[in-house]
């Protein structure tokens, strides 16, 4: 099929392809993200061209340049008007009844709660980077949020006067701005106004994005920064033939800043970094192969990209954590996730000051090294099975039941100081219950494996113990600044193992929790051949009245910013990997592109919010991915066989443009297959955005032979179809009234598991108050339409008509949907 437009075609037909990003003049180069060459080739020349004559007429060249500049400015102004209109319309769609429901919805439990913790300045731990949470907290603080805890879904906002609406509006604004950004991205990539509108309205009417972006969640800021990064990278590529000038640096730096801000919201931003990184490597490889570019110039290209796309994002990411630490100076519920060294940097945390020497008869707190389960602990509760002896666990807080006393095997009290050395055989006596740390060949309660033995506290008053109470001290490492700590146990400095003398197993703990009868504390066992890190222990606190008063005191070394930054990110990573428990509405990545199921967000008062995407948007975007792959495969096969068509710049333009968005979709989707953690449909939203952009590129290609007016009409028909499907699912998107019968009809797939039994049988039971009709639509249409017509902008007039019709249709749906529902029954 020949995609090359006829040379006899009017130049106005393809005038709509002029890319118009700010700072772009005439790049004259196509990267797949702009195609001014494609535009140039359709400019008709006179039969006897002055370009070929020796007497070159500079005045004609100047006129052509002036005409190009005028067209560029007109196109830019038109796109800005359209983007503004899209923003206003998206604001109406996304912010409509944003106060509804007036209670906690889905993950507002977490992210609203984090905002309260920021306001209280108490440290907490979350698996996501802090930027989006801090922005939400800032809005909440400015709006008057104080101490509301967001502790459960459905908790009422109104009773406590919670300023939840400004917080939702902030998230809604960041989400709705993706609509005009999608339009500008497609236009900046060199595609038609119609294609840009298709992308924008598919984003605007995507029910899943609407339901998600109206709430206090991290996804709206994440999507905003992802889209703005993609836009900046698109505009940067339009400057490829103007390197090292202001706009070239501006858009490159904007891309780097976008990457830093995206990854500072969620680690999904790493996938955006992979997308831009792949494009950067390809670009640098092409530059390296260009023999006209000197090595010096290449190194300037490489250095600028390294500075803006590596150093700048990392700096921004670290800066967000610096602000995070500054905002949470006080001890809080997140302390237990962090090391004792980290905890010492928090105000209000107990400052550990303990004698450095550990001797027999010393009362000690013994802490586990590898996990953050805490202290070796025992309490007066027995195991329900096994030996049924007293439980030994790890407990994360300082408590009197954490005290143990080092004793000699013969249980005789020492009268003078005798330090505990490597190889000593000791017993550990629980100070509160006088029982001894004990192990035997019985399986533990949770880890029923042959190489694990139960650990318990056993004994009674005046009982001298038995051989199963004996443990050998093995010092593994000491502090380099304290050589003595490698020879005998020293507080904090010495890491040691306790080896059971009879069985040879090592005292061990891991991140397995005991059930309710064990108070959800961490299991302690004795393992044969266990890995060193989980069998390491150290003494954190010691007390011994026989120690001389001048004994040196020891405390934790407080880490600096970088050490805290690294530690917190490690904890976030480990915690994120540990989110493997099942959820009633979790899903796997293979189900997302075909929209197999959604997520139940909220149910109350016979109303329901269920996150479900717009099926037409999902399925058409997914089809565009497969079509793109098939077309690329066919073209590669034809090239291999030497069968080539004269596609010219057109193929390069669409191939590279579609290829970039396809790579963006792949990098934001494929990595989830490698994750064993809990996943939900909303994790697909960044990938969905790229697939929508890809669909718009395909639409542009399929309609390339149409004049602009027909192309806009075709786009309008598609937008109406998307709008119709959007309207079908308004009740579960906004939490609006529905009926059981209509709900059942709305289950287009049997796997969509929203609960229709929650709704009334008839719409009259809801006592609905109808919203007011938006007035002045025709007036706005007439004013803008008249202005644009007088300025010779027929395409923009068509856009105004489409938008005004959409407003009327949506308002009719909102006002009359209830009556229609009743009539249908």
Automatic annotation (TrEMBL):
SUPFAM superfamilies: MIR domain. Its EC number is 2.4.1.109. Residues 355-409, 417-476, 486-542 form the MIR domain. Pathway: Protein modification; protein glycosylation. It is found in: Endoplasmic reticulum membrane. The chain crosses the membrane at residues 80-99, 165-186, 193-210, 216-237, 244-261, 267-285, 306-325, 616-638, 658-675, 687-708, 715-734. SMART domains: MIR. Its main location: endoplasmic reticulum. It comes from the Eukaryota. Keywords: Endoplasmic reticulum, Glycoprotein, Glycosyltransferase, Membrane, Repeat, Transferase, Transmembrane, Transmembrane helix. The keyword Nuclease does not apply. It catalyses: a di-trans,poly-cis-dolichyl beta-D-mannosyl phosphate + L-threonyl-[protein] = 3-O-(alpha-D-mannosyl)-L-threonyl-[protein] + a di-trans,poly-cis-dolichyl phosphate + H(+); a di-trans,poly-cis-dolichyl beta-D-mannosyl phosphate + L-seryl-[protein] = 3-O-(alpha-D-mannosyl)-L-seryl-[protein] + a di-trans,poly-cis-dolichyl phosphate + H(+). Pfam families: MIR (PF02815), PMT (PF02366), PMT_4TMC (PF16192). It is a multi-pass membrane protein. GO terms for cellular component: endoplasmic reticulum membrane. Transfers mannose from Dol-P-mannose to Ser or Thr residues on proteins. Belongs to the glycosyltransferase 39 family. This is Dolichyl-phosphate-mannose--protein mannosyltransferase. It comes from Rhizopus azygosporus.
């Amino acid at each position: 099929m020949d995609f090359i437009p006829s040379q006899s075609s009017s130049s106005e037909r393809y005038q709509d392809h002029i890319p118009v990003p700010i700072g772009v003049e005439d790049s004259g180069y196509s990267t797949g993200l702009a195609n001014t060459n494609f535009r140039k080739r359709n400019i008709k020349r006179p039969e006897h061209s002055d370009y070929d004559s020796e007497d070159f007429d500079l005045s004609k060249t100047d006129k052509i340049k002036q005409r190009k500049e005028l067209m560029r400015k007109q196109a830019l102004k038109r796109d800005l008007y359209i983007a503004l209109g899209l923003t206003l319309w998206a604001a109406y769609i996304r912010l409509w009844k944003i106060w509804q429901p007036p209670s906690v919805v889905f993950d507002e439990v977490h992210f609203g709660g984090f905002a309260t913790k920021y306001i209280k300045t108490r440290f907490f731990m979350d698996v996501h980077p802090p930027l989006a949470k801090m922005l939400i907290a800032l809005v909440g603080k400015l709006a008057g949020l104080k101490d509301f805890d967001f502790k459960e879904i459905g908790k009422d906002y109104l009773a406590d006067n919670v300023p939840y609406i400004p917080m939702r509006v902030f998230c809604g604004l960041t989400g709705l701005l993706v609509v005009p950004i999608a339009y500008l991205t497609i236009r900046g990539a060199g595609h038609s106004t119609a294609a840009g509108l298709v992308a924008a309205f598919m984003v605007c009417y995507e029910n899943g994005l609407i339901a998600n972006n109206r709430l206090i969640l991290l996804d709206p800021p994440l999507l905003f920064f992802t889209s703005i990064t993609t836009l900046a990278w698109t505009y940067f590529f339009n400057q490829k033939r103007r390197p090292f000038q202001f706009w070239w640096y501006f858009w490159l730096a904007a891309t780097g800043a976008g990457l830093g801000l995206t990854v500072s919201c969620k680690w999904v931003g790493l996938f955006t970094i992979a997308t831009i990184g792949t494009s950067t490597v390809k670009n640098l490889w092409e530059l390296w192969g260009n023999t006209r570019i000197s090595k010096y110039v290449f190194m300037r290209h490489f250095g600028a990209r390294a500075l803006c796309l590596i150093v700048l994002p990392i700096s921004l990411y670290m800066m967000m954590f610096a602000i995070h630490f500054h905002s949470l100076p006080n001890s809080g519920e997140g302390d237990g996730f962090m090391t004792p060294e980290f905890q010492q940097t928090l105000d209000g945390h107990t400052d550990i000051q303990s004698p450095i020497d550990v001797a027999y008869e010393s009362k000690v707190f013994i802490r586990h090294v590898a996990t953050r389960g805490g202290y070796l602990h025992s309490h007066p509760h027995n195991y329900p099975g096994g030996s049924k002896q007293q439980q030994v666990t790890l407990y994360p807080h300082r408590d009197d039941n954490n005290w143990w006393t080092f004793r000699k095997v013969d249980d005789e009290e020492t009268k003078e100081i005798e330090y505990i050395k490597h190889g000593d055989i000791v017993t550990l006596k629980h100070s509160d219950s006088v029982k001894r740390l004990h192990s035997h060949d019985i399986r533990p309660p949770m880890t029923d494996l042959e190489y694990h033995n139960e650990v318990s506290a056993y004994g009674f008053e005046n009982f001298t113990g038995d051989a199963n109470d004996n443990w050998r001290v093995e010092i593994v490492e000491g502090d380099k600044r304290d050589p003595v700590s490698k020879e005998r146990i020293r507080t904090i400095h010495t890491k040691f193992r306790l080896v059971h003398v009879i069985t040879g197993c090592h005292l061990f703990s891991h991140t397995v929790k005991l059930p309710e009868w064990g108070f959800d504390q961490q299991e302690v066992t004795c393992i044969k051949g266990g890995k060193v890190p989980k069998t390491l222990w150290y003494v954190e606190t010691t007390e011994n009245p026989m120690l001389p008063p001048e004994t040196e005191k020891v405390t934790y070394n407080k880490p600096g910013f970088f050490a805290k930054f690294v530690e917190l990110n490690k904890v976030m990573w480990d915690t994120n990997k540990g989110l493997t428990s099942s959820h009633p509405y979790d899903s796997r990545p293979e189900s997302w592109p075909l929209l197999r199921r959604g997520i139940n967000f909220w149910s109350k008062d016979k109303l329901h919010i269920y996150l479900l995407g717009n099926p037409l948007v999902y399925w058409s975007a997914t089809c565009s991915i497969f079509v793109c792959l098939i077309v690329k495969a066919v073209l590669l096969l034809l090239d291999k066989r030497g069968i080539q068509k004269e596609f010219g710049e057109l193929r390069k333009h669409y191939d590279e443009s579609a290829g970039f968005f396809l790579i963006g979709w792949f990098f934001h989707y494929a990595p989830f297959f490698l994750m064993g953690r809990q996943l939900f449909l909303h994790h697909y939203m960044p990938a969905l955005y790229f697939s929508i952009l890809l669909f718009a590129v395909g639409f542009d290609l399929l309609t390339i032979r149409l004049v602009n007016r027909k192309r806009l009409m075709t786009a309008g028909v598609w937008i109406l179809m998307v709008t119709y499907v959007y309207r079908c699912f308004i009740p579960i998107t906004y939490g609006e009234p529905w009926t059981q019968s209509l709900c059942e009809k709305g289950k287009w797939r049997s796997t969509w598991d929203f609960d229709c039994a929650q709704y009334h049988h008839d719409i009259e039971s809801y006592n609905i108050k109808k919203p007011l009709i938006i007035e002045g639509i025709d007036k706005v249409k007439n004013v803008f339409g008249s202005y644009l017509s007088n300025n010779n902008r027929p395409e923009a007039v068509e856009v105004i008509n489409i938008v005004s019709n959409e407003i009327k249709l949506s308002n009719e749906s909102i006002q009359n949907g209830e009556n229609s529902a009743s009539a249908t029954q």
